[in-house]
């Protein structure tokens, strides 16, 4: 009886203690999120910011590859809210051809020199400490081409801190296989998507061209990206950089984007193919339609310029006197009427039939007035110069 009474009295107490403990845990776990969302820090490209994980692994500083404020397109409507761009958007990132924006191996060595920092870094990016080198080598070093809102993670007194920040265009970062920034090279801090934040209330020194309405939030691509199409900030040309490559595999893209490398990435962009669709490729030589061969110039007449049919030119009359143009040597492309035999040229002997005997000549009047007939000799008895003798 007494045990039942004790159980009734202690059960509400235990329940109340459990609720208080759960509330305390909920408050403790939600505190970093409120702290991270409280402020937005504006960070210039070369500023390492608070609580850096490591030293800088960024390459030589370059001019910010964003579009100059004076040449920007009209600001998009949105009430100052950041724009959204997918990590595979061509021109979202920049770089220099065959030059890495970050030294990945240097970043690996700096983390390995402090096992506590390396372990904290591994927890933040959700990999084991032994997998940190492989994680970093799988990233692609590039430069931001627009002011970008992120969640940064610092390291202070053995603990990881989280804060929202806007990274200036030109900041060197490493992006993953879906085009998402994961590490800032100037400080080694891990990066995550930002969530909702008030960019207009950002704290820190503002740089020229900063505009909350042109700040970009990068979302991961729907599928892994084999290569990033970035802008060569020195030559103002397109570069196709393979994912996980530091620049050694840079080349020109097989299919250039539908806009130029100088396009304002924070302005309206032409429609891109939906994610997952294959880009159109130029047809191979064997697939191209055959083009008509160009006509070869010759001495023949063009169609429709053939002389009309005419008989032989009478003796003593020059060629072309009948109104038909005289043929020049080699002109043999005039069409022959269907069914009509092809007439050989006058200076060519017939080869398909024997030479006929001479036709009978008209009687030549003699001196006596008596008609004479020509005597036809057999072919083998004809004199060689008979024709010349007759002409004499």
TrEMBL record:
Bias (Basic and acidic residues): 278-291, 344-361
Record keywords: Signal
InterPro entries on file: DUF6777
Residues annotated as domain DUF6777: 86-244
Keyword Signal belongs to the record: yes
Bias kind Low complexity: ranges: 55-66
Region span, Disordered: 48-98, 242-392
Sequence ranges of Pro residues compositional bias: 304-317
Lineage: Bacteria, Bacillati, Actinomycetota, Actinomycetes, Kitasatosporales
UniProt signal peptide: 1-22
The keyword Signal belongs to this UniProt entry's keyword annotation: yes
Organism field: Streptomyces castrisilvae
Tree of life domain: Bacteria
Pfam families, A to Z: DUF6777
Protein name: DUF6777 domain-containing protein
């Amino acid at each position: 009886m007494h045990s039942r009474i004790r159980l009734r009295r202690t059960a509400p107490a235990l329940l109340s203690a459990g609720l208080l403990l759960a509330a305390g845990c909920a408050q403790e776990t939600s505190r970093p999120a409120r702290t991270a969302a409280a402020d937005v820090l504006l960070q210039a490209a070369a500023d390492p910011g608070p609580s850096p994980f490591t030293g800088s692994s960024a390459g030589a500083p370059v001019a910010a590859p964003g579009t100059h404020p004076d040449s920007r397109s009209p600001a998009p409507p949105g009430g100052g809210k950041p724009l959204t761009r997918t990590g595979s958007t061509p021109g979202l990132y920049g770089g220099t051809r065959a030059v890495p924006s970050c030294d990945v191996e240097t970043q690996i060595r700096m983390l390995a020199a402090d096992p506590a920092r390396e372990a904290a870094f591994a927890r933040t990016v959700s990999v084991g400490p032994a997998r940190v080198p492989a994680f970093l080598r799988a990233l692609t070093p590039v430069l931001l081409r627009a002011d970008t809102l992120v969640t940064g993670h610092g390291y202070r007194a053995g603990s990881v801190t989280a804060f929202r920040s806007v990274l200036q265009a030109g900041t060197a970062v490493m992006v993953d296989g879906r085009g998402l920034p994961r590490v800032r090279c100037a400080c080694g801090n891990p990066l995550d998507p930002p969530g909702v934040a008030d960019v207009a209330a950002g704290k820190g020194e503002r740089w020229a061209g900063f505009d909350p309405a042109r700040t970009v939030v990068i979302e991961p691509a729907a599928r892994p990206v084999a290569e990033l199409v970035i802008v060569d900030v020195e030559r103002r040309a397109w570069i196709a950089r393979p994912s996980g490559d530091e620049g050694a595999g840079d080349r020109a893209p097989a299919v250039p984007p539908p806009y130029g490398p100088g396009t304002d990435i924070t302005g309206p962009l032409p429609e891109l193919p939906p994610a997952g669709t294959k880009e159109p490729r130029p047809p191979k030589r064997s697939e191209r339609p055959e083009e008509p061969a160009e006509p070869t110039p010759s001495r023949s007449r063009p169609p429709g310029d053939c002389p009309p049919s005419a008989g032989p030119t009478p003796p003593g009359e020059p060629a072309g006197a009948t109104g038909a143009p005289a043929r020049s040597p080699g002109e043999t492309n005039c069409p022959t009427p269907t069914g009509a035999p092809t007439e050989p040229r006058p200076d060519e002997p017939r080869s398909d039939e024997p030479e006929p005997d001479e036709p009978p000549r008209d009687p030549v009047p003699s001196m006596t007035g008596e008609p004479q007939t020509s005597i036809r000799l057999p072919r083998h008895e004809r004199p060689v110069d008979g024709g010349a003798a007759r002409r004499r």
